[in-house]
Amino acid sequence: MAISSEQASSVETEVDSRTTGADPTAGDRPLDPRRWAALLVLLVSAFLDLLDGTIANVAAPSMQRELGAGYSAIQWVLVGYQLAFALTLILGGRLGDIYGRKKMFLVGVAGFTLCSLAAGIAQEPWQLVVARVVQGASSGVMVPQVLSIIHVTFNDKERGTAFALHGLVGGLAATLGLALGGLLVEWNLFGLDWRLVFLVNVPVGLVGLVYGAKVITESKAPQALRLDIRGVVLLTLGFVMLVFPLLQGREMGWPVLGFVSMGASVLVIAGFVAWQREKTRRDGSPLVELGLFRTRSYSAGLGVNLIFYAGMGMFTIGWTLYMQVGQGWSPMRAGLTSLPFCVGAFLTATSSVMILVPKFGRKAMQIGAVVLMVGLGSYIWVAGKYGHDVTSWKIAIPLFLVGLGFGTVATPLPLIVTSEVPHEHAGSASGVVNTNTQLGFAIGGALISVIFFGGIVGNTTDNVDHQLPQLRKELVASAQVTPGDADKIAAAYRTCAIDRASEKDASVVPASCTVQPLRDAKVAQIVGTYGKAQVGDSFSDSFRTLLKAFIGVTAVVLLLMFALPKRLRQEQPAGEPETAAAS
């Protein structure tokens, strides 16, 4: 997942440095002798950012249990990071061009490190949410500088190697994120549990700050665009008005004000578009170059990108809830279960860009979408057949297929979306695609409240009703209660299960679950076994609904791909150096 967004960033940085005239590759100045040491700092920082985007997923249920947080708070921990990251990416690039890339990189690293510490010591859910949101914003300042500094630090001959190493780091972070998160939580060093996921960033960040200040050379864009603070505020307000009701709606009982906010967000975003036109007339420095949308393939491509990553946002968070909350798997097991997906994505991430798309064009991506749908369909079949008895091995092949399909679509997507954009606007175009990707993740994660949790009570009711006849028989046979008492216990169990499913916090025990018929030790043991099974089945049913929605999303993406260019444009404009390795 992180690979594609970094691919987009590389194109943006590469073109920006050319169009602003910051080209150190012409041989007019000696190479920085500390450039490889600087690259090490940049790659480690990029690795932490990419890792943090996924590593928190597998630790989220542990955070929820310890902090007593509701499901919406955990969604905020994951979605808030992506949303803040998306909304500060373009601004972060501008800040680096104006005030210095080294300076803004160090500011971003400092903010990321401090927020990692704040998240690691958080005692309340709101503290963790705030820390994660600010951490995402810090990443939005840090990440654009990484590729910018690489571009201006290395010459043509070395730049390809530097960008290849950056791509390798991105692939490793995407591959290891979930597994490493599970390992850190399971390790529970010094009793820190999930907190180690964030605290491990602190010493690395401090070393990066000290060492980076010594080895990174400062650079600026000689003709940098001006800041557009009003544009950032309008865009942020518009998307927060859209995402906040989706995240909090279930917990607040879906108030009318939430729907009003979502409707009004369209007006705010329309106001943002109007301001961008005005900003273009005033000084030619809009946050988003609206002229880009005259390129039909680019406009359609942004729609494909947003919809696709909204589906992935739903899948990744819903998958975590399904494995750890529904099936009761440990973080370690959940992380290791993700490896087939990660391996599949890693295999096709490189081959799709280097071989498949250059040779077959968009058809390769459409085949990838079909493979993704096959993987999702097979996962639906496995989850439906085995329910709470599903094992990691049983879903390995579906996950591998999903990973293969994801890697084939995601990695070349930003490149082919921008392939018909005029070269003078390629930097702005790629920046918008990158932001669009993160917004898609955020919107998809917010939709979990509707698609996943929207049916959890109904699924629980159906699964409990299916269990009741067998439960009554087992209570009479094993707990040695009368048929009349078995009926009372079964009714109490049903009420308890439905009330628990209705709770916004999985750790809350409803009063109906502490009634007298359920207190007997033998009864509690039997009911507990049935309860665990029905939770697994109910979450499995909700996840299957989500997978069906993702199949629908992927089908729409498949159709919209016909609006993309048939081939990835390969040629370089005359007089420009070959920097294909950067993308």
Question: Which features does this protein show?
Answer:
single chain; 583 residues; mainly alpha; 21 helices; 76% helix; globular; disordered N terminus; disordered C terminus
Give an overview of the whole structure.
By secondary structure, the protein is an all-alpha fold. The chain is 76% helix and 0% strand. It has 21 helices and no strands. Helix 2 crosses helix 12 (331-337), helix 11 (296-326) packs antiparallel against helix 21 (521-560) and helix 13 (339-360) runs antiparallel to helix 14 (362-386).
Low-confidence stretches: 1-27, 571-583
Shape: globular
Strand content: under 5%
The number of distinct β-strands equals: 0
| Class computed from helices, strands and strand pairing | mainly alpha
Biggest pleated-sheet summary: none
**Percent helix range:** over 70%
Give helix and strand order, one letter per element, not per position.
HHHHHHHHHHHHHHHHHHHHH
Transmembrane segments: 36-60, 72-92, 104-123, 129-150, 162-184, 196-217, 229-247, 253-275, 302-322, 334-357, 364-383, 395-418, 439-458, 546-564
Pfam families: MFS_1
Region (Disordered): 1-29
Biased composition (Polar residues): 1-22
